[in-house]
Predict the structure of HTH luxR-type domain-containing protein.
Amino acid sequence: MTELRVSWEHTFPDDGTKLVIHSNWVSNTPATQAYLEALIARVGQMDPAPHCVFEKRQAVPSRSLPPDLGTFTSAEFWQVAELLHLQATPSLAAARLVLVEGMRPAKAARQLNTSPQALTNTLRKIRTERATSSRLGRLPADRPPSEGTAPQEP
């Protein structure tokens, strides 16, 4: 996983007020990095240009994080959810944040207003189905399913 840190400071010429933003992102997806790089490019176009720092380094995951945090592709996640006939619920959306985006489970549960237990149950179902489906050949073991098989994200 990659840790991306973005910090910038901008003074507005109208009234001299300052905007300071510090953001840390931990992700294993190139899309997150591309998003932040595009955001930084846009910030650099502001007049006057703000001071901006962008750092990228290998993330050191906490020992308390699940081993599969952020290891699903979006298509794989939705394919497993479809195999399980899971309904669109806050706990399913939170599970996607954990398994695809790499968010910590507690933060995902809080952000989507679901109970940690409901999220834990959904994560358990999805992890079990992924392992079972890979063994039975319903999901490729080493490569994600094609994007065309995934339902639209909510």
